[in-house]
Amino acid sequence: MRNPSIGGAGAAWIIALAIAAPAHAAPQGLLETLHHNTTLINTVPANGDQNPYAIYVAPVSTGIIKKDDVLVDNFNNSSNLQGTGSTIVIYHPDTGKMTLFAAIPRELKGCPGGMGLSTAMVMFKSGWVIVGSTPSNDGTTDTKGAGCLVVLDSRGKVNSVISNPDINDPWGNMAVVDSGTSAVLFVSNAGFGVGSAKGKPPIVHTATVLRMDLDIPNGKPPVVKRQTVIGSGYGAQADKDVFLIGPTGLALSADQKKLYVSDAVSDSVDVIDNPLTRTDSAGTGHLLTQGGLLRRPLAMIMAPNGHLLVTNALNGQVVEIDAETGKQLHARWSDVDKAQTPPGSGDLFGIAMTPAGNGFYYVEDDVNTLMLAK
Question: In this predicted structure, what is the pLDDT of residue 252?
C-alpha cells in the first residue's frame, strides 16, 4: 500500500537518494563469484609421498577411474626430498574418499634419473594417462636427471616410457587436444642447461615448449607420431627451495589458435600463435601480460568464460586474466596460511576446473591437501 505521507518533495528526495547510492558492480570474471575454499582430502598415500603437484579431472570412466574423479600426483617422497615422489592418487567426488591409482617404480627403466612426478599430467578419452618426471636422487638439482613421460593404463600400470633429446624435465601442466584415436600434447621442458642450486644459480634461457602429435590406436597406448619444438628461450633456474623455476602453465584458447605460456622467471604470460600447425619455434612468442598481480606464475587453465586462471608461487593468490586483452582482472586469496610470508607463498601448484565450470580444484602442497574453490 502507498504511504500517503510520502509525496511531493519527499518522493523526489527518495528518488534522488536511490540514484546517488552506489550500485554493486557486476563481477568482471569467475573469481569474484567464488566465496569458499574447502579442504577435500589429505593427498599422502600409504608410502608417505608428499608435495602434491599435478591435478587432472578424468574425462571418462574406465579401469579404476570414474568420470570426474580427480587425479593428483606427488613430487616428494616420505623424506620430503623433491624430485623423488612416485605416486598418483585419486579423489572420488561422489564418495569423498581417496584411493591409490599408481605407485611407479622409483627406478624405471628408460627414464633418465627415475621418478619425481611433476605438474605435467593428463588423462585421455581412451583412458591412458601420461605423467611427467623431473627426478633427483637427493632432492636437489645437483643430481637431476632428464626425466621422461610415463604412459600408464587406466588401472595405474606402467605401459611404456617416452624419452628423447627434446624431453628434459617435463615440468608444467600440459595442454591437450584429444580426439580419441589421436591427440596433440603440449609440454614445457625446464631442465636444459640447469645446474646446481648452490650459491646464486644463473638464469638460463633454454626452456622449451614441445608439441607432441600422438596416435592412439583402439586398445593400444599412445605413440609419438611427430614432435616439434614450438617455443624456446624461456628462462629456467635451479633453486634450493623449490628445486626448479621455469615455464609451468600451458593453456589453449577455445579456437586452438593460441597457446598461453606462464613464464615464472619473467613474471609474465606469453602467447604462441598457431600452436597446432606451426613447424618452427616461435621463441617466447609475444607478451600478453607481465608483472602486476602476477607473482611467479605457475599452473594455468582456461576458464569457461575465456579467461585464464593462474596460480602464484610467491603468494597464495590465483589471478584471473582476460586472455584477449591481457587485462589482469582480479586476484583471489586461495591460501592465506600465515606460516609463509606472504601468506600461502610456495603452496600453490596444480589447478583444474570443476566439470561444471563453477569452481576449481587446487592443492596446498605445504599441508598436502586437495582443495576446492567454489
Answer: 98
25 band by pLDDT with thresholds 50, 70 and 90:
low
Helix (H) or strand (E) holding 11: helix 9-20
CATH number at residue 216: 2.120.10.30
In this structure, what C-alpha cell is assigned to residue 291? Answer: 608483472
The DSSP 8-state label assigned to residue 32 in this structure reads: G
Q: Do 117 and 53 contact (CB within 8 A), yes or no?
A: yes
Residue 221, preceding peptide bond in cis (omega within 30° of 0): no
In total, how many domains does the chain have?
A: 1
Question: How many CB atoms lie under 10 A from the CB of residue 329?
Answer: 18
Angle at 289 between CA 229 and CA 314, to 5 degrees: 90
DSSP string computed for 266-309: TTEEEEEESTTT--S--TT-EEEEESTT-SSEEEEEE-TTSEEE
Q: What is the span of the domain harbouring residue 49?
A: 28-373
Q: What is the mean pLDDT of residues 223-230?
A: 98
Only one residue has cell 616410457, namely: 161
* Residue 332 within a domain: yes
User: What is the arithmetic mean of pLDDT over 258-278?
Assistant: 98
pLDDT band of residue 12 (cuts 50, 70, 90) is very low
Long-range contacts of 312-316, Cβ-Cβ distance < 8 Å, separation of 24 or more: 312/348, 313/242, 313/264, 313/345, 313/346, 313/348, 314/342, 314/345, 314/346, 315/342, 315/343, 315/344, 315/345, 316/340, 316/342, 316/343, 316/344, 316/345, 316/347, 316/348
pLDDT digits (tens, 9 = 90+) for 129-142: 999 999 999 999 99
7 lies in some domain:
no
pLDDT for 2 = 35
